[in-house]
Each structure stands twice: as structure tokens, then as C-alpha cells.
Amino acid sequence: MMTEAEWQRSQYVPTMEEYMTNGVVSFALGPIVLPALYCVGEKLLGSAVKNQEYSELFRLMSTCGRLLNDSQGFEREGSEGKLNSVSLLVLHSGGSMSVEAAKNAIQKSIVASRRDLLRLVLKEGTVVPRACKELFWKMCKILHLFYFRTDGFSSPKEMASAVNAVINEPLKLPS
């Protein structure tokens, strides 16, 4: 987040690669997901945490989250003077790409990242335990729920609706 604040302060326009490299970290799923991986049942070995597969699972999950957030929060962030992947695509296109076309391109990137994440989660015989891989997948699904129609993170109405559904609406089990 400090990098993004510095970019904003200096009016630096990062490349998409710079933005996404930083954005995967600044989306801040690390403090939420990574400690939880040690509580899912199967032992997570240090060798698995240091393995490229683990880093790729985190990168793909965080990429989905960052891009979903950017797509839904584009107007709000723009009004705050912040750049995101949508505005960067438009800026770097020299005006040849519309906001709608940029959002479509972002959506394609989300689909590709989600597909790659699922492929990695379902791959057998890897060093990261299956339960841990499934946690990355479940968080990705939660992110899609959050950002399905709107920026569920900053929308109190959407957040309250999701919380009320979980608390107040009983699960209907098949008979």
C-alpha cells in the first residue's frame, strides 16, 4: 500500500506489470489466508511453503481478488485519484481503449487466473496438501461473491445483505 501511496503522491503511472506485482501483495489476503492454512487439518510443511506451487496458488488467488476489486471499484477509486488495472489499461492504450473494453479485458484475465488456480488446486501429487489448496480456491470463490454485482467490500448494503443471509436464512438441506 505504501508503494501505491508513493505512486499517487509522485503522480507516477506504473506499468500493468508493476501494478499487478504490487497489487497482489497490497490486496492483503496474505494475513488472512496464509495463517489459516496451518489450521485446515493436514500438516503444512516448511518445504511446501517455500515451494513455487504455494507462491503460485497465492498469486493466482490474489490476482483474482485484485482484478475483481479493480473492476467493481473503478469509479470510486478514480474519484479518489487512485489508479487501478482498469484505468491503467485505458491510460496505456493512449485513449484507444474504452473503460468498457478495459473492464472486458480485466474480466478475461480474471477468468484465466481462476481457471489456472482451479487447475493447480485439482492437480494431484503436489507438495501443497489438498486441504490447503482448497482453501485458496474457497477464498477465490468468496471474492467472486463479494464482487459479483458491486464492490461488496465498500458497499454497506451488500455487506449487510451477505451477513444477514448467512445469519438469518436457514440452510435448506435436501430430503
UniProtKB/TrEMBL annotation:
<feature type="domain" description="Terpene synthase metal-binding">
    <location>
        <begin position="1"/>
        <end position="115"/>
    </location>
</feature>
<dbReference type="GO" id="GO:0016102">
    <property type="term" value="P:diterpenoid biosynthetic process"/>
</dbReference>
<keyword id="KW-0456">Lyase</keyword>
<protein>
    <recommendedName>
        <fullName>Terpene synthase metal-binding domain-containing protein</fullName>
    </recommendedName>
</protein>
<dbReference type="GO" id="GO:0010333">
    <property type="term" value="F:terpene synthase activity"/>
</dbReference>
<keyword id="KW-0479">Metal-binding</keyword>
<dbReference type="GO" id="GO:0000287">
    <property type="term" value="F:magnesium ion binding"/>
</dbReference>
<dbReference type="InterPro" id="IPR005630">
    <property type="entry name" value="Terpene_synthase_metal-bd"/>
</dbReference>
<keyword id="KW-0460">Magnesium</keyword>
<dbReference type="Pfam" id="PF03936">
    <property type="entry name" value="Terpene_synth_C"/>
</dbReference>
<dbReference type="InterPro" id="IPR008949">
    <property type="entry name" value="Isoprenoid_synthase_dom_sf"/>
</dbReference>
<dbReference type="InterPro" id="IPR050148">
    <property type="entry name" value="Terpene_synthase-like"/>
</dbReference>
